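Notebook B, p. 112. Complex prediction, attempt 2.
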Amino acid sequence: MKTHFSLATLASTILLLSACGDSSSSGDEVTEVTEVTDITIPFAARANGTDISCDVQLSGLGTDAASGSITAFALYIHDVVLLNSDGSELPFTLADNDWQSSGVALLDYQNKLDSCASDISKPTNASISGSVDGGIENVTGIRFTVGVPQDLNHDDASAAESPLNRTDLFWSWQSGYKHLRMDLAPDGGVTKSDNSTGTAWNVHLGSTGCTGDTQSGEAVSCSANNRPTIELDNIDLNSQTIVIDYGNLVINNSLYTDNGRAPGCMSGTTDPECPDLFDALGMGLGENPDPTAGQTVFSVEPL
Amino acid sequence: MANQAYLMVAFAAIFSFALSACGGGSSTNYQTGDDSESRQFSWGVPDYIPLPIVPEDNPVNETMFQLGRHLFYDEDLSGNGTQACASCHHQSMAFAESIERSIGSTGELHPRNAQSLVNVAFNSTLTWANPSLLTLEQQILVPLFGEFPVEQGITEDNKTEVLERISQKPEYQTLFTEASGNADESINFEIIVKAIATFVRGINSFNSDSDRYENGEANTLSDAALRGRELFFSEELECFHCHGGYNFTDSVADSSQLFVDTPFHNTALYNIDGHGAYPETSQGIIEITGKASDMGRFRAPTLRNIAFTAPYMHDGSISTLEEVIRTYAAGGRNIENGPNAGDGRENPFRDGFISGFDIDENDIQNVIAYLNSLSDFELINNPRFATPWEE
């Protein structure tokens, strides 16, 4: 059933009679004809060419050519816009379903329960689905933002609906979500700065430096939102997939060592593992970010 | 459950464009049970929290709750008539126990500490460490009939006698008849288990100072508790990774979820052989799965009412919250001598989030002030959950 959902609806164009007005009104009401294009856009997650799941060993990662296996791999996406060749934009309306609500989609590649330690399968999601008003024949690009948008990020997560109800993606009570969570258990562990050995090398992207107390009705503002906006050109929605390359994300990091703060990078402005990861995402780190040129994590490849 | 979720995906796919074209229609993807008998039940669960998952063959209702309450507090529900569920799960301690490890009806020392039963309806798995124990109905068989260790000690040999003791109490004639039609036919272990499950499912706590604070009530948390809250949810302490969400645990199941995760964690308490071993009496889900890497992995309990439930950890081996925080700050427990000697901090199966942190004495007290704000005094004093029998 899931396959049917992902592929059969791919770029099918539907002509819809829009007649939402009062049905008892007179016969000369204007019947609008709107072209709505339903689209499913696949996102593949890979590391150096290997499709990411709990079941595979990843290798050749980072500066040590490290190997290991994931324990979590998920990211939120919002503000998806298709870009026409003439520069005009087609805002993409995300459908409401188990993986998408309130204009936010969750991509999730962890296919086993209990941080991949269980043998029991868990649902995954490797595409976004929705629609645009109009045709897509002139679409040559896509833009989207990684993370949970500001206006939803500080609601009470305990009361949210799927996919914003995932406790493993809560950043804290009301200070937001993990926009992106990619956790790796490197083979043989991680040597920490005090020479002890850890088991995890995690990437948690979340907003930092947040102030404002939602409990007393204040709006929350964060000094570092840490939501990278990704723009990809030269795409063909009918024949290509977007690729998230974990290998490129960690390409300048050593995954067998952790030089301080959280294991891996949890967006801390003084965490020595963060700057290279933020560079790969095309973001600056900290309160006065100095954005680096172009992200290298997302790309398009033939299906 | 999974099939149902996939059907909903298909349903959403078919109708989504129609809804968006009309510019309206907020859809809800989960069943909160608002229209059903389930919402009518006195859950003690506020509207903004999704209801727990209830097995289809044991819907909640008040008569089953009241029958279960009588059984929960009845010592006759044990092989030798000396031990009730309530013997190890005390309301005044949020239905936990103040001794390190429980003692069964025949005097046997249990390998584990009795856990709080509050909000247990939201657990994704039951007991400290069993990934296959998913419903209260399954779990209740363990204390009633378990042999290793013996808890309430009901056996093939004495079960008829136990049922006779129940039948002889006039209260049960009425309670069983009201709950399931006919006492003559329903005084059996199926109904007993379902009724206790319903009672326990109904013991819910969302009335702590912390809940009032998160709902916008002013002046509910002290400055110390607010500082502790900040630390609790920080990336330095990492507490919330395993104790996050409305029930302060990642092991949470409710009706809004697409799937139910079943997480377990090795918190680096032991390392007896240098290869990660926990004491033989209690080793975590490795006892169920047989997987070497599951050594020392236990379910993260809720931190709600944690101030009432000392001592702590699966074996009650840490007596105070101060000591718990110090253990986590050290990145695990180093036991220097005795039969369990070994450096837990070097446990190869240590959870990635148990990586240690720096904290001063003042901030330890601040974290405890926050943990104290998770106490629900209404719950421990609520006559609805108290013994129905005259003492």
